[in-house]
Amino acid sequence: MRTITMLLRHELRLLASLLLWVGRRRHGVGEGRAFGYARGQGAVMAGFGFVCLIETFTMSVLLRDLPALHTAMLIVDVYTLVLLAGVYAAWQVRPHVLDGAALRVRHAAHVDLRIPLDRIAAVRHETRSTHERADGELNLAVGSQTSVTLELTEPVAHVTFLGRRRDVDVVRLHADDARDLVRDLVRVVRPGRNVPSPSPDPPG
After folding, report:
1. Which residues contact residue 33 at a Cβ distance below 8 angstroms, ignoring those fewer than 6 apart?
2. Strand pairing of 96-98 and 102-107?
3. What are phi and psi of 115, to 5 degrees?
4. Most buried in the list 75, 122, 123, 177, measured by CB within 10 Å?
5. CB contact at 8 A, 147 and 185
6. Is residue 79 classed as helix, strand or coil in its secondary structure?
7. Is the pTM higher than 0.90?
8. Which residues, given as ranges, of the chain have pLDDT below 70?
């Protein structure tokens, strides 16, 4: 039952994101500075949408003599397209947000992690395209890539998609303007603390 509840909440967040996107509004930005992370992903989502449309048309032809099943599949296919649009909308309207107290790290509608600035020990610009699952690490890749790495002084609680709690002390995320995000974090993280400066991308 808990899993079903979490899935329903996720779908409601996707639908809400779609409404915000249509209304050209963003979620949870307030007075903070927003950092997007989905630039260039529109073409990928359009490709998925095109495949879904082809599948919908194909099923309509195959099930034309079974009206009840045809209608059911059509509803499922249309709802799938709506959710797909909702995922893209969530990428757009739920950016990372930096304010005076925390960095709010997000990934569409299924990750929303608030990291207090006083728990950030180090921040660096670091482009990675491979991520191995490890205890205490959270990797939020976009297009298989992360560009910012945060090391924390103590773990923060991350609630997974299905509601399981994980404590993480390393967070890797992607931002379209990664260098700007790193620079702004260096400026506001505990004034006077020795925070590593943005590092160049590793070779390769």
Report:
1. 97, 98, 99, 184
2. antiparallel
3. -110, 110
4. 123
5. no
6. helix
7. no
8. 190-204
